[in-house]
Amino acid sequence: MDIDFRLAIVLAPIAIAAGWAVFNIGAAALRQIQGFLDREA
């Protein structure tokens, strides 16, 4: 089972962009949750 490297070349930038978006949104979400928990305490 050989991987088609053309597919990897096409999907790599999309995967990198999706990972970057999840990283940034996740960091913002954690800050928001932490702020909410600090306000409640």
TrEMBL record:
It is found in: Cellular thylakoid membrane; Membrane. It is a single-pass membrane protein. Keywords: Membrane, Photosynthesis, Photosystem II, Thylakoid, Transmembrane, Transmembrane helix. It comes from the Bacteria. Residues 1-6, 26-41 are lumenal. The chain crosses the membrane at residues 6-30. Pfam families: PsbY. NCBIfam families: PRK13240.1 (NF009711). Belongs to the PsbY family. PSII is composed of 1 copy each of membrane proteins PsbA, PsbB, PsbC, PsbD, PsbE, PsbF, PsbH, PsbI, PsbJ, PsbK, PsbL, PsbM, PsbT, PsbX, PsbY, PsbZ, Psb30/Ycf12, peripheral proteins PsbO, CyanoQ (PsbQ), PsbU, PsbV and a large number of cofactors. It forms dimeric complexes. This is Photosystem II reaction center protein Y. It comes from Nostoc paludosum FACHB-159.
